[in-house]
Design brief:
Elements lengths: L8 E4 L5 H12 L3 E6 L2 H15 L3 E5 L5 H11 L4 E4 L14 H29 L2 E6 L12 H21 L4 E8 L5 H14 L3 H10 L9 H11 L11 E4 L9
Parallel strand pairs: 1-2, 1-4, 2-3, 4-5, 5-6, 6-7
Helix pairs in contact: 1-2, 1-8, 4-5, 6-7
Amino acid sequence: MDLGIAGKRALVSAGSKGLGRGAAEALAEAGVTLVLNARSAGPLAEAAAEIAARHGVEVVPVAADITTPEGRAAVLAIAGEVDILVTNAGGPPPGLWSDWSRADFIKALDANMLTPIALMQACLPGMMARGWGRVVNITSQSVKAPIAQLGLSNAARAGLTGFVAGTARQVAPSGVCINNLLPGIHATDRAVALDGAVARAEGISLDEAVARRAGQIPARRYGTAAEFGAMCAFLCSQNAGYIVGQNILLDGGAMNSTL
């Protein structure tokens, strides 16, 4: 399918690995020029070079912590006018509700709610002025089905979802579509970290922890970054102009719900 976005310019945060990398790869395959952000300069430069060589598009790496004002300013200064924005940041650590302090919540909100909002506030005016734009926020299945040990993530991502619900309808008349992608478990470093914590807590192997969790998913496997990226690229395409303010699950059927 021709996505109709060749030549567009995209900013993808946390794009050197995992789901962000999957999104970057899919957009590059569609002919989109990328501004790729991550914190670690070495892996980011390597990812940018690989994507550029594989897909023949320009990929500009910008190493910065996107969750800080200084990091966002550095990224946005280089990004310039972007047509597509994909927001992404690592989730907060798991834990117990009674152990989290105000500082823990503020850190989670900064990374997973306020940073995406700040990026949208920076990029939306230009998109609206040009009459076209796409924003995809990578959030979590926990928005629809809370995960008890991920209370920090539940709270921050729910706040972002509420912001998007209203904002998406305000900018849609200008040809700008904002949507959220809600990943379930995917084969990424985040999954390894969470499964590793379970394995250590229960005295089982990492393979056993993975097999047990995969067995609870109707698809009987973890998702891949490539299939996640393909959905992200579709939402960024010319074909998705009538999809506004939606929260789309990619969880292998794990959430048991009619609607």
